[in-house]
Amino acid sequence: MQPDDFCPRPLTSATSGSRPLVEPIHLSTVYQCEDPADAAARIAGDIPGYVYRRDNHPNAQLLADQCALLHHAPRAAIFASGMSALGAVLLALLKSGDHLIASSQLYGRSLHLLTSEAARLGIDASVVDTCDLAAVRNAFTPKTRLVVAETITNPLLRVSDIPALSELAGQHEALLLIDNTFASPVVCRPLTLGADLVLESLTKIMNGHSDVLLGLLCGHEAQWERIPQVATTWGLGANPFECWLAARGLGTLALRVEKANANAREVARQLARAPGVERVIYPGLPDHPDHALAQRQFGECFGTMISFSVSGGLEAATSFIRASQQIPFCPSLGELSTTLSHPRSTSHRAMSDDLLQQLGITENMIRLSVGIESPEFIMSALHQALEAVAT
Ligand SMILES: *Cc1c(COP(=O)(O)O)cnc(C)c1O
After folding, report:
1. Cα separations (Å) of 355 from 81, 123, 321, 344?
2. How far lies 228's CA from each of 96, 125, 149, 372, in Å?
């Protein structure tokens, strides 16, 4: 063999036959096929196996299988981001002339995709408060194919009544898609409550280490026919290294979420009595508008997010954020450490003043993503920053 001949030859590693405890990262973009029949059967999906990485690869499949178990989902697929998972739903299941209903409290990009972008494809959207079931009922048209809501919304932490939305969607032969990013399957498994499809940004709580951008879609066989085809045709698939990292993050999901949930409960209770705090929003508090629904739907786990308002206006919020030494201002969520965000200047900066006022998303509102530190550490960090508000 000449040196030139070496590089193109596929070599087999000397350790093959030994079984590593941890799944390797499969970077290969292509796989060897035995013969034409084998290649054709694999590409058609008639037999298991991989051919080309954009179609599927072992790291994405492993992660999808783990997520399917977590969500009790017959089918699951991994996408390059939460947004590409939502894009896949639109492209696979809707067509020009269809109508959808979107919750007015959806993640900003989701709302943009389901309204402005969908309109360019000839898909009409009604944006309604999906906590108001009468408003949802009135929004259906004979062409409604999809209803989209979030399990727990940002930053008001409103809770969707998934069984009721599922019943309404079912009556109109529409599908219910639930974005479960703020809950995670530890708090809620929407498919078991009647949702047809579940979406999660794995970027957040599921990976949990702030180093991966990925999306998940779960659903039933009946809706799945076009999903893999759309994912590979539009090139929406995920990178193996990110799937490998997310699978590692999933290993501690239950531990992380249970700890952060317990922390959030305690922090919400203490914040409600803290000087310099005007209002605390947390579904686990009895004064939250969806407290009873959250108890019914989630049991004793109310999620890891808390919103609160500091006394004063934007200036007070700015003082608080600048003084916050231990809790960084990072406009995302689901990290190991507690982080904070300021909805008015980040996630909700594009929303009209009217709607912000109507919803009660004020300039003095801070949103916390509670992490896995000790509750004492989190409270002392918050008190330290609150001192700046009082002075
Ligand atoms: C972040 C987020 C998304 C989008 O996910 P990406 O992974 O950032 O594309 C969708 N919905 C919610 C609720 C999110 O928080």
Report:
1. 28, 24, 24, 12
2. 20, 25, 23, 36
Q: What is the tens place of the pLDDT at every residue in 197-212?
A: 999 999 999 999 999 9
Length of the chain: 391
Ligand 1 in reach of 215 Cβ (< 6 A): yes
DSSP string of 117-148, one letter each residue: IHHHTT-EEEEE-TT-HHHHHHH--TTEEEEE
CA 166 to chain centre: 19
Separation of alpha carbons 181 and 86, rounded Å: 12
Q: Are 328 and 337 in contact (CB under 8 A)?
A: yes
Q: Is the CB of 82 under 6 A from ligand 1?
A: yes
Q: Tell how far the Cα of 343 is from the centroid of ligand 1, in angstroms.
A: 15
Two tokens, residue 80 = 């390059």
Q: Is 250 in the pocket of ligand 1 (CB under 6 A)?
A: no
End-to-end Cα distance, the chain: 78
pLDDT of residue 4: 75
Do residues 301 and 331 lie in contact, with contact meaning Cβ atoms separated by under 8 Å?
no
Judged against a pLDDT cut of 70, whether residue 254 lies above it is answered with: yes
Q: Judge contact between 305 and 107, C-beta under 8 A.
A: no
Helix %, strand %, coil % for the chain, to 5?
40, 15, 40
Specify the pairing of strand 144-150 against strand 175-179: parallel
Of 234, 238, 201, 230, residue with least CA distance to 217: 201
Could you tell me if the CB of 63 is within 6 A of ligand 1? no
- Residues 353-378 as b/e (b if ≥16 CB within 10 A, e otherwise) read eeebeebebbbbbbbbbbbbbebeeb
